């Protein structure tokens, strides 16, 4: 299904303010509330909207340190990749894991309290991930831009 300009306006509004009421959203995109509700339901059922979440402030929750970890595996066999990916999903400190093309096989985004906490995460979790041959960690000094909004 193709999405039209109204669908794009709905998606853009919901990305900025996910708690907006259906009535406010309908007014913003110039639809009746019932038509707005039907469109949002369709966008959800067709996979354009994958869910609604609250975005938490990691700093306020005592996890201000972001570390990007490049992982190179010892091989590329499907079994090794699958084992690595399964293990990564069990580590709550890993916010993102991306299979990469380039110098590393995977790029992880990890949050921690501080450098000591990252050392604990490294020892207990990262160093025990299956098939890891090399690991390079880079600490973010400051976040210049962070968004979850996808251009629509």
UniProtKB/TrEMBL annotation:
Q: Which GO terms describe its biological process?
A: regulation of DNA-templated transcription; response to amino acid
Query: Can you tell which superkingdom this protein's organism belongs to?
Result: Bacteria
Task: Report if keyword Zinc is assigned.
Answer: no
What protein is this chain from? Answer: AsnC family transcriptional regulator
According to the UniProt record, one GO cellular component term is:
cytosol
What keywords is this UniProt entry annotated with?
DNA-binding, Transcription, Transcription regulation
Q: Which organism is it from?
A: Albidovulum denitrificans
Q: Which InterPro entries match?
A: ArsR-like_HTH, AsnC-type_HTH_dom, Dimeric_a/b-barrel, Tscrpt_reg_AsnC-like, Tscrpt_reg_AsnC/Lrp_C, Tscrpt_reg_HTH_AsnC-type_CS, WH-like_DNA-bd_sf, WH_DNA-bd_sf
Supply one GO molecular-function term.
sequence-specific DNA binding
Q: Would the keyword Nucleus turn up in this protein's UniProt record?
A: no
**Which residues does the UniProt record annotate as the domain HTH asnC-type?**
3-64
